[in-house]
Amino acid sequence: MTHRSYLYILSFTLFLCAMIIIIGFMISYSRKSESKGLSQSEASAISFVLKEYNGKLGLFRGQAQSPYQTLDFDITYLSEYDRELLKEGISVDTQHELEMLIEDYTG
Fold this sequence. Notes:
Radius of gyration: 24 Å
Oligomer: single chain
Largest sheet: 4 strands, antiparallel
Structural class: alpha+beta
Number of strands: 4
Strand order of the largest sheet: 3-2-1-4
Order of helices and strands: HHEEEHEH
Number of domains: 2
Strand content: 15-25%
Distance between the termini: 70 Å
């Protein structure tokens, strides 16, 4: 075999390896989305809302009218400004952002 043939085979092998790795990452990512029971578009559309609910902090998903969890934290200890924000609801995109927001208010 010539030097040129070895380079061609090596280039083709590296290309195949790169494609296998990329496909592996794509499959892994799609399985993570499926394991949560949501399509990729549904997962990106859902947001979290921290909102006043019966004088406590309520955690809402998306546009839900009732919280999926309430925190035993009396909002009367907060400033008037913060209480007004919570009456309207504070939206965040991720669970991590929601956890940080809760920590800010209850910490």
